[in-house]
Amino acid sequence: MKTIRCFSLLFAALVAVLLPAPNVRAAKKTLTPAQYLVYVGTYTGAKSKGIYVFRFDPATGALFPRGLAAEVTSPSYLATDPRGQFLYAANEVGEFRGLKAGALSAFAINRKTGRLRLLNQVSSRGTAPCHLSLDKTGKYVFVANYGSGTVAAFPILADGWLGEASAVIQHHGKSVNPARQQGPHAHMIAPSPDNRFVLAADLGLDQVLVHRLDAAKGTLTPNDPPFAVLRSGSGPRHFTFSPDARFVYVISEMGSSITAFSYDAARGALAELQSISTLPPDFKGENNDAEIVMHPSGKFLYGSNRGHDSIAVFAIDPVKGTLTPVDYVSTQGKTPRNFAIDPTGSFLIAANMDSDNLVVFRIDPRSGRLTPTGQTAEVSSPVCVTFVAPQ
Asked: 215 exposed, middle or buried (CB, 10 Å; 0-12, 13-18, 19+)?
């Protein structure tokens, strides 16, 4: 009996070693990352019809096309609410309901299919709307109208619809470039991390304007100090905050440079620390900068070059906030107007507007360097990439 019992125990041990337990396999399945939705805004025309949607696997960087999410005219910039239920688009149309103005569109997101259902549209209260963002509570949409040099705020109603503007501000002035800076050109607007201030980059004025936000009323009033000044003729386009809100980085379209500012969160004030080129020293051609994105870790900063057709990579000094060039990486296409980093910080998707393609890069977590994954996708005139995390 003792011999039989020993043999039984030995057999059971061998089975346990050779056959993996079912619950281990189930645990591994639960650790597989869920796929994100990726929305791409475009300039519409003969090929593009509006907003396109992809599935994105954050484990591999793979993109899976899911077709047209919504047919709408020139949705050049996109933003979603904090819960990922609604998507908002800036429509660069020349006329809206008989008025010389652009439009804003509100959509409900179908999380299963990725399709978008139009809720309503409102006037952007200016011409050529080129950027929009939401406040941190998801109660207001802010828009920058490039053509008219106006910014505006719109309340988001309980069902995701957009209400009429709660604030409209006209920028005034000009700068030194007679071809591009004869008047204001608001190019980006976004709230501070604490939601107390709203900043607006104006290419025509060489300024980043700062407004105080009344989160109860959705109104904007000039801050004191009311703006930060950049180098004349630089043409500030977009900006981003460091995760700890100690620094602000502004990319200048015309100057092909990034300016680092220290940020006083109590006063909403910016003080310049550094200005650095986004181009390699030996580049001599024409170039216009476009997008700037902070890595979720706060260690790296990225900016896109249109002309050099690259992403400039910078390391950030965690104490000083200053930048050091790391690399200049080809976007494998023409005119990278926009790009985005997935929420895990593992991949970057570049949108090459004039070569009609998206290109996925893997991000090295130690150096911030970019390596092409081989994953690409065709989209006509892509101008904005937006991630929506799985529920």
From this structure: middle
